[in-house]
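Example 3.2
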Amino acid sequence: MLVANQATSDLGRKIAGELGLEFSEMIRKQFADGEIYHAFPEDVAGKVLIIVASTHNDSAHQELMDLIQGGRYWNAASVNVVIPYLGHSTMERVKRGVVEIPKGVTRTRQIFRAQPDFVAFVDLHSEAVLHAHGGEISTKHIWTGELVVKHLRQMDLGAFVLVSPDYGFSKKVARLASLLNCPHTAADKDRYDIDKTIIGQISGVVRGKTAVICDDMIRTGGSIIQTAERCLEAGASRVVVLATHLVMAGEARQRFLKSPIDKVIGSDTYPGRACDDLLEVYSVASLLAGELRGYLKMEQGKWPTMVTNVRRE
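Structure, written as tokens:
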């Protein structure tokens, strides 16, 4: 049985279709005092429950917690979670002298403490959150690289170079470049405020080529647009952007439309993102369905025949 939190229902339906399952829409109501009512549309006892939920805001995170605990309460045979986009994922560690809460870790720990059997994440900013439990949860970090390679090869980009907006992300870009058999380089980024960065020079390897700036997510777009400007200064013929999670916070869209960037390519992991004049969005549904099918076949030995006769005490 596959359900999703409300924000991730569209992707949940796509994944259900890939798995050959009927998507089960949760029953939701809101009381006059603001409290939210949830009910499963049918009995989950003895069933393998799959929950698809991005946690891009507090409401989505809390709904995921409710769905996991609801599955446990009503004796699902197993509770399996896919988190396409993990909120607060960049806050996996704290800075010296600042008594901040590393919500990337603390919120992931909340999810683990709700006792799902399996949790999968997509293109994490840092794998540190995978270890925010005591070893009792099966976890998987799903990399979209091969899906991205397939998508880029279908595009008319000409000769291109992959560009990392900072050295911290350059290893992932190098891995992607090896699959594409293309050159890659990195910008020199210095962060001086919570959402502000300065981008230094870019290597001349971009000269005469399409610069494909790669990152795990686009939040405000400031550093990526600066990187695009440096690429053009270094002789790039055009610039496109590739990022898994299209957060596009605040006025990011307006900034990109005014920038020299031709196109922003990304996935549907962040709720509400679809193709338009700026965005080219591909779906991760087939990738996530394949990972789920493989995991459940290995762990349950019951795929595609779902577990229907096991009741957890």
